[in-house]
Amino acid sequence: MNHRRQAVRGLAAALATLVALTAAGCSSKAKSGDAKETGAGGVKMGEGVTDTTITLGALTDMTGVYATLGKSVTQAQQLWVKQTNAAGGICDRKLELTVRDHGYDPQKALAAYTELEPKVVGYAQFIGSPFVAAVKQRVDGQDKGLVMPQAWSASLLGSPYIRVLGATYDVETINAVDFLVTEKGLKKGDKLGHVYFEGDYGENALKGSKYAAGQAGLTVVEQKIKPTDNDMSAQVAALKQAGVKAVLVSAGPRQAASLVGVAAATGLRVPVVGNNSAFAPQLLGTQAGPALEKMYWFASPSLPIGADTPVAKKLAADYAAAYPEDGLDNGVVAGWTAATAFGEILKKACEKGDLTREGVSKALLILNAHDPGFGMTHDFTDPKSPSSRQSVIIQPDKKAAGGMRTVREPFVSEAAKTYTF
């Protein structure tokens, strides 16, 4: 616990150092992609590609504040690699996934990125929007390796190589407010509480809640917290005194559980809606479990792992067989979605005879209808937009597979349609 707290508290200062070190690294390295060769099948090759293998990187958190997410994402991607290789690989080459755990520590994240950069064609995951943002200039200007981040901040939009899968936090929050208005009775003149992490994630979500509130005639009551704040008693007291009729939470699973549990215990019986990263099925086994099932929902960029689709059913069964000691959660879906998208991009690059980073980036721009089997179709043709503006509203349910059930199918609110980044 102390290690995690120290890592988060030192994030801002360490990121400043990280950016400086990144710039220094740029000046000492030759431009990516200078050395290219034609290999097996007449395919151009660059970093991470040989006649027999295609190597992808995974920069993850398996020991820090998002360890649950990181483990599920990584194992899902390892499963995809295994199944893809069993089916013959891609472009007559076997896939390899090289994993580095940064523990949500900025220095480790930079070190891992720098280590893997010359060894991989791109990254099937990169957890932590602050870390992705810190290397963005290097990715765009020199390295040009495709990054599929497990982060949904709008600050990552605009890059030809860093592509957000699904609605960004601001759009997701706009859709969440629409759910509260259309299905939970929130109306013009009401106050809407918003508990959010300081920093990129929470503040991007806050931008969405303020926009949606302006459209619906609501007033947002803000409660900014730190990732190390686990007891939401003070925030609940403030929101109760303000007379809020609903609450948004853009934080981690612990904070969401504390907020809902304290609210239920103190009589603030209002609907609470979180962002996609503000829930983990393990919470249903805590004291907050019953309250979460009654008064908590969260917006997600995809249907849950327990969805009634052929892909979801097969993935749930395959994942359970491969990792029988681990439960199902939406990290599995997120990891699978990113991996399958990367796979489709590699196939298109192979068809064009170019598996260099340049070839992969060109292939990305023609992938306009990727369907990983979880209710969303992703369009990667516009770097300035997320791949989708749709959200699904999910409710915790310990009886459902993965502890989640869908209460509103994929939708885009009118406010989200007109929202500009």
Give the CATH topology of the largest domain.
Rossmann fold
Query: What is the rounded Rg?
Result: 21 Å
Strand order within the widest beta sheet: 8-7-9-10-11-12-13
Top-tier CATH class of the largest domain: Alpha Beta
Number of DSSP E strands: 13
Number of domains: 2
H and E string: HHEEEHEHEHEHEHEHEHEHEHHHEEH
Number of helices: 14
Give the termini distance in whole angstroms: 36 Å
Shape: globular
CATH superfamily of the largest domain, called what? Response regulator
Please tell me the overall pLDDT.
91
Largest sheet entry? 7 strands, mixed
Proportion of strand residues: 15-25%
Q: Extract low-pLDDT stretches.
A: 1-9, 22-35
| Structure classification | alpha/beta
CATH architecture title of the largest domain: 3-Layer(aba) Sandwich
Percent of residues in helical segments? 40-55%
Write up what this structure looks like.
This protein is α/β, with parallel strands linked by helices. The protein has two domains: 2-18 and 43-167 and 309-388, 3-Layer(aba) Sandwich (Rossmann fold), CATH 3.40.50; 169-300 and 392-418, Rossmann fold. It is built from 14 helices and 13 strands. It has helices at residues 2-9, 11-27, 67-86, 106-116, 129-143, 169-183, 200-216, 233-242, 253-266, 289-295, 310-322, 330-351, 357-364, 414-418, and strands at residues 37-38, 44-45, 53-60, 94-101, 122-126, 146-147, 191-197, 219-225, 246-250, 272-274, 296-300, 391-396, 404-411. The longest helix is centred in the last third of the chain and has 22 residues, at 330-351. The two termini are 36 Å apart. The model is unreliable at 1-9 and 22-35 (pLDDT under 50). Residues 53-391 form the Leucine-binding protein domain. Keywords: Lipoprotein, Signal. It comes from Streptomyces hydrogenans. Pfam families: Peripla_BP_6.
